[in-house]
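Give me the fold.
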Amino acid sequence: MHILFDEAGKLMTGRLMSEAESSLQVELESGKRVKVKSANALLRFEKPAPGQLMPAATTLAESMELELAYEFAPEDEFGFADLAREYFSASAGTAEQVAALLCLQGAPHYFRRAGKGRYKKAPPEILAQALAAIEKKKQVQAQIEAWAAELAGGICPEPVRQQLYKILFKPDKNAPEYKAVVEAARSSHTAPLTLLQNAGAISSAYQFHWQRFLFDQFPKGTGFPALQAPVITDELPLAPVQAFSIDDSHTTEIDDALSLQGLGSGTVTLGIHIAAPGLAIAPDSAVDQVARHRLSTVYMPGHKITMLPDEVVQAYTLMAGRDCPAVSLYVTFDEATLAISESRTALERVPIALNLRHDQLDSVITEAWLSGEAPAGSAEPAIAALQPTLAFIHRLARHLKAQREVVRGKPENFNRPDYTFRLEGKTGDEPVGDETVVIGTRQRGAPLDLMVAEAMILANSTWGNWLADCGVPGIYRSQASLQPGVKVRMGTKAQPHAGIGVKSYAWSTSPLRRYVDMVNQWQIIACARHGKTAALAAPFKPKDANLFSIISAFDAAYTAYNGFQNGMERYWTLKHLQQNGITEITATLIKDNLVRADTLPLVLPVMGADGLPRGAHLRVKLGEIDDITLDIHGTVAERLDLPVDDVTDDGGSGEDGEDEELAAPLALAIDVDEAEGEATAAQPPQTPGPAGD
């Protein structure tokens, strides 16, 4: 006697050895003996032999027509033997019965299980839906195979082209477009990005990076809805100053300006004047909703995406020749000792006399010119007239920096330049990616930079402390210490910023460019109007959930924007190498096998640096450039006997992992080998902003 039984959903056969009340002893064809529950025994038979039964039954089952079996099956619950008798004949044998069982098991859309070996026909409407779904799945699979064949043959189907960035960076792994790329990559043994490039899905490296960023951060485009700048209705007094701003020539969002009063009197008052959109734009207004959605202006070589529309910006920007509404901080100093005696905040209209552009004046306003050791030279009369004012502000800035460095515990050594990118030949609003790039340098800590930086740090720290004194929450940046791995954090409490060396630090000086600055400006305005009762009138109250939501959203957006800016600067740096035929550079070993170029904003991995000390100066032969992944490698050609500066301190701008991120190529979220686990990270190289910001 032989037995057909169900073992965890698998049909097995064997010779019956013995039988107890609730179990059977069965010998399998392999000779192994197993214990089988009686309830799992589906059929007892004499012939054919177990080794012959399943092949014969399988062949019969494959010949059965499901539609006919469904029609012949009883309407009520039935067993597989019942179907065999209806389908084959009233004397259906063992092979026919097992064939019927296999047919029932393999067609769950036609037949539902009702117990061991028992089934019931699916209702006709449910069957129709199931068959339609199966047919649709077949069509989708056929489409996937057709698309995969096209991709492998060097042609990109339009649906795949339209889903390119989603497939690579935020894939729906059940989407047919994604599956087609994966299948084509597997069958052709080609990396997905290379596959798509070969198929013509990526025609421009620049557009690839630009459109990827838009897909991720601006899926609805960068245009603004129709907005009108709200009018400032406050009756603001006119400040008795002549203020000037310091920015580069491309700046349209002029947030800040400076003024000086009392020079030569022994008591000097520095005015720090900040554009005041917060006097007109109300929280939750239409303009505010746009700003809160964007959170910051996005910068990149040759282009920018502003936080606010230009017509709104122009209503509040500190343009020369106008009396501009401003939130002003006045700090009074002893002219000799530079000790602070008092500070006050005013809401007023500020006459803006000049918009200075540092890229035009860095060669004129030098330390020698400020100290009187060099003649005015080509300085225009209006600039020459500012020499005493600028000289004092520069002296004050150096003093403030030195005071911060005492708190900081070590000096800020700006031993790397800031790099500037100029695109020659750009004809439209946006670059196309093949313009000639000219990379220039500006030494960090240049006089004009230092004046602005120290004035803004003074304002941000003074206003941060004032908000805390008034019991009004703000958005602060803090850093617990300068120990490795201790990063800058954002929060609502006034806490020290070790990287800058101040008691507290609240971004407040760029309300046209950063949303947190506008939020803090609303709070500062409340303090200016209401003093110690400001907490009752401020838009954001202590422990306001909205503040935490803004911080979270801003952190994410600002990190993404900085990452994109760094990626585009890397793109143009690689373009510079190509355009100038540069195949070798000199560089400094900064960590393990990473080097930083001496004269370009470029960090890259190299071979041949094993055993060399950190800080070694090297000549590096460059490898091939991939402007899609932004990848480049190098090989150490020679160690140069040149003195090297200390590379452990760059003014507080580097955080753990920054160098690796700058050198890392673009990574994808597409995974052609799902069995190996999670997909790779989908973020481009990112780097945080300077700690001293």
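The radius of gyration is 37 Å.
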